[in-house]
């Protein structure tokens, strides 16, 4: 059971954070707000090419914010600038209202968890945790109490006298997490901390980290390229690409209401149909596909007839049973190419409007029909579940 140390998790939702647009979760002007603030921050390594381009971002106190994106998108560089291991080329970073561009890393009071754990191999677990306290001049009796408390948090006190080489990968990660928390930092940064763990342990650690965040009320900035990890753990997610934030929103908004084609394609599995806008009226777009069919979608960033669009539809939102097709939605012909049994789900790949990569997912419920390769069916979806976006250039 989660203990609610903070007054309310709702305080970190996009709708209540200062400077965050209530509907889209996209940052408005957060430079004057936030516990952590990036104000017009840029980073270049060669003096010409910007790997971070004019970043404006406010992170609320007690928030769990994830920076998510592919390799080279700028997310890790932003984390390293916040930690003090990289210097911003332009702009200012502030922590709790204090500019920190010129503050060395060890004086920022930030906890850090790395993917490779970064534990001292010649020290015991207890010594690893005591080290940052000793550096801060804390008395031995106080150090011992804080070390015990931190190890109890991650259920690792029994291993206090072991060395890192005597621990499993998951145990080392718990120790690295405890060391980041031992001096009670107000901000903890995590750089791909679970990347070296196997799938089952990684998923378990996601919940452990989230439970610790909930109970302690600390601010966490987390970097990952794993979309599922970001959706599971975060209050908000900043999706990075090409040195910019493409969308900033709570996980449900990001998944259900992507604001551009990159976000729609990067977050979760997604069907994409290219077409042209035939008509837009009453918050509904009529899209003509290359094969001539008409489909309905919600217009997001398309505005006029004849405009090219990419229609995004999640596989679990597509229906193939006639009685379940949404009223008023256009149905479209499809041919079953492949049926895969996944236990709790059926995954069916279809040929739709000339594309062989259209997927639907259906729950394995009692009486659910297994579709057969070669079978011809009609599929459809609610217009609200299909989003007409500007295509990626």
Radius of gyration: 24 Å
Mean pLDDT: 87
From N to C, what is the helix and strand string? EEEHEEEHHHEHEHEEHHEEEEEEEEE
Summarize the amount of helix as a percent range.
Answer: 10-25%
Low-confidence sequence ranges: 1-31
CATH class of the largest domain: Alpha Beta
Family: Belongs to the ABC transporter superfamily. Spermidine/putrescine importer (TC 3.A.1.11.1) family.
GO molecular function: ABC-type polyamine transporter activity; ATP binding; ATP hydrolysis activity
Catalytic activity: ATP + H2O + polyamine-[polyamine-binding protein]Side 1 = ADP + phosphate + polyamineSide 2 + [polyamine-binding protein]Side 1
Pfam families: ABC_tran (PF00005), TOBE_2 (PF08402)
Structural descriptors:
ATP binding, 393 residues, ATP hydrolysis activity, 5-stranded mixed barrel, Rossmann fold, 8 helices, OB fold (Dihydrolipoamide Acetyltransferase, E2P), 31% strand, cell membrane, single chain, 21% helix
């Amino acid at each position: 059971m989660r203990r609610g140390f903070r007054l309310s998790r709702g305080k970190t939702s996009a709708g209540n954070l200062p400077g965050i647009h209530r509907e889209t979760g996209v940052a408005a002007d957060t430079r004057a707000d936030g516990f952590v603030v990036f104000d017009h921050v840029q980073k270049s390594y060669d003096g010409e090419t910007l790997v971070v381009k004019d970043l404006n971002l406010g992170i609320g106190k007690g928030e769990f914010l994830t920076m998510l994106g592919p390799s080279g998108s700028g997310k890790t560089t932003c984390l390293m600038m916040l930690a003090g291991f990289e210097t911003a080329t332009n702009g200012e970073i502030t922590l709790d209202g204090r500019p920190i561009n010129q503050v060395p890393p060890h004086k920022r009071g930030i906890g850090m968890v790395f993917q490779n754990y970064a534990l001292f191999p010649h020290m015991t677990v207890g010594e690893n945790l005591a080290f940052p306290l000793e550096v801060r001049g804390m008395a031995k009796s106080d150090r011992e109490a804080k070390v015990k408390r931190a190890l109890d948090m991650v259920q690792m006190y029994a291993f206090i006298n072991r060395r890192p080489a005597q621990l499993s990968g998951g145990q080392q990660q718990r120790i690295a997490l405890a060391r980041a928390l031992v001096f009670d930092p107000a901000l903890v940064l995590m750089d791909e901390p679970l990347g070296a763990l196997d799938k089952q342990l990684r998923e378990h650690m996601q919940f452990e980290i989230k439970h610790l965040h909930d109970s302690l009320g600390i601010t966490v900035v987390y970097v990952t390229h794993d979309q599922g990890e970001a959706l599971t753990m975060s209050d908000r997610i900043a999706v990075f690409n090409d040195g910019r934030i493409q969308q900033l929103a709570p996980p449900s908004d990001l998944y259900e209401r992507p604001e551009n084609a990159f976000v729609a394609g990067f977050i979760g599995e997604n069907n994409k149909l290219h077409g042209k806008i035939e008509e837009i009226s009453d918050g509904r777009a009529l899209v003509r596909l290359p094969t001539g069919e008409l489909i309905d979608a919600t217009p997001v960033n398309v505005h006029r007839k004849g405009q090219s669009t990419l229609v995004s539809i999640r596989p679990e939102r597509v229906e193939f049973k006639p009685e379940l097709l949404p009223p008023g939605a256009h149905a479209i012909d499809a041919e079953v190419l492949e049926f895969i049994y996944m236990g709790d789900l059926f995954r069916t790949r279809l040929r739709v409007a000339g594309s062989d990569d259209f997927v639907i997912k259906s729950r394995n419920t009692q009486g659910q029909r297994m579709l057969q390769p070669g079978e011809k069916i009609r599929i459809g979806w609610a217009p609200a579940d299909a989003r007409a976006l500007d295509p990626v250039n």
